[in-house]
Target: Small ribosomal subunit biogenesis GTPase RsgA
Amino acid sequence: MAKKKGKGKRKGKGGKVRVDLRRNKQTRARDQNVTHEMLNDEVAAEDASSSERLSGKGSLTRRRTVVGIDDTGDQLLRSVDSEGCLSGRVTSFVGLNCNVRADDGREFECTIRGMLRTLARDSRNVVVTGDRVLIRPEGDEHQSVIERVEPRHGVLSRNSQGREHIIVSNIDQLLIVASVADPEFKPNLIDRYLVMAERHDVKAVICINKIDLVDDTSLQQWAALYARLGYPVVLTSIADGRGVDVLKHHLANRQTAVSGQSGVGKSSILNAVDQDLNLQTMDVSDATSKGQHTTRRARLLPLNGGGWVVDTPGIRQFELWDIGLEEVDGYFIEFRPFISYCRFADCSHIHESDCGVKNALNANLIAQCRYESYLRIRDEDIFVWKNPARGQS
Ligand SMILES: Nc1nc2c(ncn2[C@@H]2O[C@H](COP(=O)(O)OP(=O)(O)OP(=O)(O)O)[C@@H](O)[C@H]2O)c(=O)[nH]1
Ligand SMILES: [Zn+2]
Model:
């Protein structure tokens, strides 16, 4: 099989590789004021650093052999003398630096070894929140340098101007929080988050909160519907403590991204799972003003029972919605076996004849409310403003 030739680097089979390097000084050529401004605008920081990487072939001035190549993906794994290094996890970003919590619990503020930026295919994703990293403490006991980023899994990313922007890595699952009332229960919203989880290939756990506000029977049918699809469902009440232990069990030793609309009780739930988190909660009536103080960047919070949670507005507000209209059906997992029975390969499962999905719906093999969610999601404005090219087609 012919080997693919990358522009700046070539991958070998676990052996040595020659990479093109840019002159060090070129990475510093950026105006200091720009850097200062960027600290106040994280998104701009990402865009500016990425345009730096697009400086063209003329900037490739040196070549170097790097050993220890990750054979499986895009990431080049630097070979590092691990003596004196600690492994840990990136918990958040502070401007261009990041906070790392070492496995022994110590916290470090880290810079990123220039070589890592040089090796990266896309400099905006050199190091991201959630990454497992190898750090080398330097000078001050809380300062350190990231030497290596371990291979990632469970990446949640969004598309920014046609390029992938990773929001958080190494996510094991998405916790979808809904409330039975106040705000009202919205199965369609759960379905949208499920589509997002399927799109990013992460497991989903559904938490239906505030069960103290309604009688049990109306809830059971919803819990049963999602459980039948294979999604774990946990019913909780922070008011009387029901379900909290079950939820703890689901979160223990996993890295979980939390989603759900404002006011459903995400912060209250996390506080109940781990009181040390001490997250601010707010009356639903105040919720609208709360969003103004949030940051776009993800922040990883350690749980005292082991594991991590990440609560970011980007995940809640569907910034990860990089989905084409024609893909939506495949993210409704119970549709999948029936899609191949559709007469037309591009069947929308709406008006076509001989549609496997509609036949399954008529035979009660697909729930009516899920099919309605599918129709609503296809109808969403989100396809127009997140995906203009696809929205028009
Ligand atoms: N009755 C009842 N109220 C709850 C429960 N869980 C949370 N609440 C209340 O719901 C309100 C919103 O809770 P939060 O935890 O701030 O909700 P959130 O989802 O984190 O909201 P945002 O931070 O705006 O996204 C608070 O007044 C909580 O006290 C519950 O199980 N039962
Ligand atoms: Zn069809």
About this structure: Confidence is low (pLDDT under 50) at residues 1-74, 287-295, 384-393. The two ends are 36 Å apart (CA to CA). The first strand starts at residue 17 and ends at 22. The pocket of guanosine-5'-triphosphate (ligand 1) is lined by residues 209-210, 212-213, 237-239, 260, 262-268, 281-284, 287, 290 (CB under 6 Å).
